[in-house]
Structures are given as structure tokens and as C-alpha cells.
């Protein structure tokens, strides 16, 4: 029993010392559009002291009041974006579940973040709605409107993987350190018309966009959207851990800029 107590005390002490160092560096406060355990773990494994808040369930008009307290925006996966936002309302019947409240909430969060130079990272739906919010559009259904060469979604979503190729001039490539990788996949929609100011930074073997980022990132805040689910990948995967590490670093920098 005494050995267990000592071991527990050592582990706790190590955690507190680690956290103290991070607190000294101002732990980032991350606003999440809709939180789940996997996203929380993805953040905390890169910074155990990060402060995470889910905005889902809050009144949309509270975004403008609450967002100034945060340092970074994480847009998570989920339902299809209402196609009226990108001029394809007639295709609504070909969509899956649509959550109008969530669309409105995330549009407001994105608008505030872009207007105030807050770092943004989007996952799956998060990447899609980011492109839409900035003026782009989506492929409504990949198998019907694009191609079936690569399987992008299947019933056993945790077993759906495919290769992605990264643009070697992109920030994504600089973070991942590799021109190719294996990503998990669980989506039937993707970027169609790219929003102004963005570029495709990764694609699958069938040419489908798998990641977006700023066309000219120099001097501008962090912005990356990926179709795969890095929160479900091993943190050592170059398409997972490095993305969150850099996003959090940018969030810390944003926090410091607000204090000067």
C-alpha cells in the first residue's frame, strides 16, 4: 500500500510540475464547436493544461461575447452543412442529417475568429464548413458526384483508411514532414469550389481534396482544415500530433498578442 501511495505521489508531482511549466507559458483556451472525448484527448495529449470549452448548446448570439476569452477555434466533425449556404439547396434531399442550429453556431464562430485573426483548425465537417463560410462550396455526395475509386466512407468507419498526398509547398507538409501518409476517412462530402484565399494542401489518389489551408500564410493566423480524423489516429502519426502541436503553439501566441 505504501509503495502504491509513493508511486501515485510521484506521478501526481510529475504532472503538476509539467503543468506548472505550461501554465508559465499561458495554457491555451480552446473553443470547440462540439466536443467529444476523442477531440478532448487529442488536445490534452499535446498540452495537458489546455482549457477546453464546448460551445454546442449555447445561444448563437453569445458567440460574440464569449469568443474574446479564447485563443483558438477547433471545428469538429458531424452532420452535413445545409447546402443553401453554398447555393445547392435543391440537393438537400441528397444530404444526411442537417443541424441548422450547429450551422448557425459555427458560422458565427468562424466569422468572429476570421475577423479577429484567431487560429483555426477544422476536422471533416469542420474543414467543409470553414470552406463554405469563406465563400466556397461542397460536393454534395462523393460517390454520386465525384468518383468511387477511393472509398471515403464505409459502415465500419474505424476501418476505413486511404493514402493522402501532401502539397510539398504547404504548411501541412512542413508540419507532417512527409509528402504522403495514411489517413482514416469517414465522409461523403468534400470541398468543391475552393474559397478565395485558400488552397488544397492534400488530396487522395482519386484527386479529391483532403486538406485546405491559406494560399498565402505568411503573416496570417494559423488555418488548416483536414477531411480525415486526426483525433482518432495515433498521436505519433504525422497527420495527427504535429497538427495539434502547432495549432496550440499558435493559440498561445494569439493569447500573448491579446495582452500587448
Description:
- The structure is a single chain.
- With 260 residues, the protein is α/β, with parallel strands linked by helices.
- The protein is built from eight helices and eleven strands.
- It has helices at 2-24, 37-44, 63-66, 100-115, 125-133, 142-145, 171-176, 241-258; strands at 29-32, 51-54, 72-75, 120-123, 138-139, 161-166, 180-184, 190-191, 198-204, 209-214, 223-226.
- The strands form two sheets. It has a nine-stranded mixed beta sheet with strand order 2-1-3-4-11-10-9-6-7. It has a two-stranded antiparallel ribbon with strand order 5-8.
- β10 and β11 form a beta hairpin.
- Mean pLDDT is 90; it is low at 1-18.
Strand content: 15-25%
> What is the CA-based Rg, rounded?
19 Å
Q: How would the global form be characterised?
A: globular
Major beta sheet summary:
9 strands, mixed
Return the average pLDDT rounded to an integer: 90
Subunit organisation of the chains: single chain
- What is the spatial order of strands in the main beta sheet? 2-1-3-4-11-10-9-6-7
Number of helices: 8
Number of strands: 11
